[in-house]
Design goal:
This protein is α/β, with parallel strands linked by helices. It has eleven helices and nine strands. The chain folds into two domains: 91 residues, no CATH class; 189 residues, no CATH class. The termini are far apart.
Length: 316
């Protein structure tokens, strides 16, 4: 009997996934037809309307209030509304990622995207040495991977696949069309990441999400847990660590900014200190979020520190 139930359940879940794939594909087809500006605006309008009805909205308001205790309720709600707007806009822009990144250093007429710190990108090109690039969920956070692919930068982007397998499948298809190497953050990903650096490649990763088995850092005045893997690789490979962020500008435009290499703290042996490195990267992210709070993902439960969590390094 249990076997029959299991079979029915797996059939239902397969059917649900098939329907979801259809729905997600339908949304992307519609977005493609609308073009980047209009599909972004439709996504933003939907997210602004539906977002505040979701439980994640309460998380966002609580996070914003904790970080900005002096802001009025209206100001807090405006930041949360901006965050939903940005998330919806980013979703609507997905099918157009290839068109959104139109930066051409030879063209004096600016396009949709401008790049700040292009000299750092150029210095990474063809150096055949490993480098680490960290980022955060700001504006349209997918653009740096496209920038790297366009400029022929040998880069592997590590991302957290959506929980829904249907959405994950469609997103992977779209990402694969426009980006270079992709590695889902899962068991075994650490070895693929290490392999990329050993070959003199570059590794890009978003570091602004909670990681239970991570190291403790201070983020926006509160303790948070962060994945230490980039700090571990920086220590092991002694390679430069850059930050890259995206800023959403008026009129459907973007600015990518690549920082110079960070000067990371070292321990008594002269090696890069893992926790200190993660704190340094997190502090850069904090500066970015404080500059454009309405462009960050406040809905994520970022500040979850387990009892007894140290600033120590857990094993991979």
């Amino acid at each position: 009997m249990a076997h029959h139930h299991r079979r029915t359940r797996s059939l239902v879940s397969r059917l649900t996934e098939t329907v979801m794939v259809g729905v997600v594909r339908g949304v992307f087809v519609l977005s493609r037809a609308l073009g980047p500006e209009r599909s972004g605006a439709v996504g933003a309008a939907l997210a602004r309307t539906l977002g505040p009805l979701l439980p994640a909205h309460k998380t966002a308001l609580a996070n914003i209030r904790a970080v900005y205790p002096d802001k009025t309720d209206a100001e807090v709600r405006a930041i949360a509304r901006g965050a939903w707007d940005n998330l919806g806009r980013t979703g609507g822009e997905y099918p157009h990622l290839g068109r959104l990144f139109d930066f051409d250093p030879a063209n004096p007429v600016p396009g949709r995207t401008e790049v700040d710190g292009i000299e750092h990108f150029v210095s990474l090109l063809g150096d055949e040495k490993p480098a680490i690039i960290f980022s955060a969920h700001l504006a349209n956070w997918e653009l740096p991977a496209i920038c790297a692919a366009r400029f022929g930068l040998d880069a592997t982007a590590v991302f957290r696949a959506p929980n829904d397998p249907a959405v994950a499948r469609v997103l992977h298809e779209i990402r694969s069309e426009t980006m270079g190497g992709l590695e889902a953050a899962r068991q075994g990903a650490a070895f693929a990441m290490q392999g990329a650096l050993e070959k003199g490649g570059h590794l890009g990763m978003l570091i602004d999400q909670h990681f239970t088995r991570g190291v403790r850092v201070n983020f926006m005045g509160r303790p948070a847990m962060v994945n230490p893997i980039l700090g571990k690789f920086a220590r092991r490979f002694e390679c430069p660590v850059h930050g890259v962020r995206v800023i959403r500008l008026p009129n459907h435009r973007f600015r990518l900014q690549l920082t110079p290499p960070l000067d990371l703290p070292r321990d008594a042996e002269g090696l890069i200190d893992v926790q200190g490195a993660m704190q340094a990267m997190t502090s850069v992210v904090e500066g970015w979020v404080r500059e454009h709070p309405e462009q960050w993902l406040w809905m994520h439960r970022r500040w979850r520190v387990p009892a007894g969590a140290q600033g120590n390094v857990s094993s991979l």
